[in-house]
Amino acid sequence: MPYREKTAWLSLIAMTVTFGPYFTFVAMHSIEALPNLRLLGLFGVAAVAQMLILGAGHLYLRRGSAEDARTPPDERDRAIMGRSISSAYYVLIAGMILVGCVMPFDSTGWAIINAALVMIVAAELVHYGVVVVSYRRQA
Amino acid sequence: MMECSISNRIRTLRFHDAEMSQAELGQRIGVTRQTIAAIEAGKYSPSLEAAFRIAQVFNLPLEEVFQWDAKATH
Known about the structure:
The complex is a heterodimer.
Chain A: H1 3-28, H2 37-64, H3 66-70, H4 75-102, H5 109-137
Chain B: E1 2-8, H1 10-16, H2 22-29, H3 33-40, H4 48-57, H5 62-65, E2 66-72
Antiparallel strand pairs in B: 1-2
Helix pairs in contact in B: 2-3
């Protein structure tokens, strides 16, 4: 498995296990008021946990395939990267239109913040998902 | 409508060139082993530059390494 596919899997897993529980909690509780330190703290925990998982994961992957990690991306890697970024861009732009132009008419506070976060995470999931699928299809 | 596919003889050429490994060929043209594997399997079409570099490694013209099959479908 190419090193860049492994890092994409790592990012997908890190996002799923950290922001998955966060958004599940948000969906199960109606939280509108600002400020909400409990929710802010929960978001902080999810973000820090994601960074720790990514940091440890990258260290582990680099140790396992140091030469692959040092190799600069070739033309296929760059093509896959370009495809994944353009796919994620459309998700992000659609999300930002929804959050910035539609939601302010009927939502406030944390609902808008969390919707923005959902769209950012969704765009990242699409980004890394397209990377993984592209490498799998060409494997 | 034209349905096109690009095939190649890289695997055979590697075998005849002292069983050159995918990693070695990749190193010589500046791509990863996995990219060579994807090109050989016909799952990735290389850039024109990479195709020329591969042909240069084997000292062959491009058309002896890569073949373009065009099938007309209506």
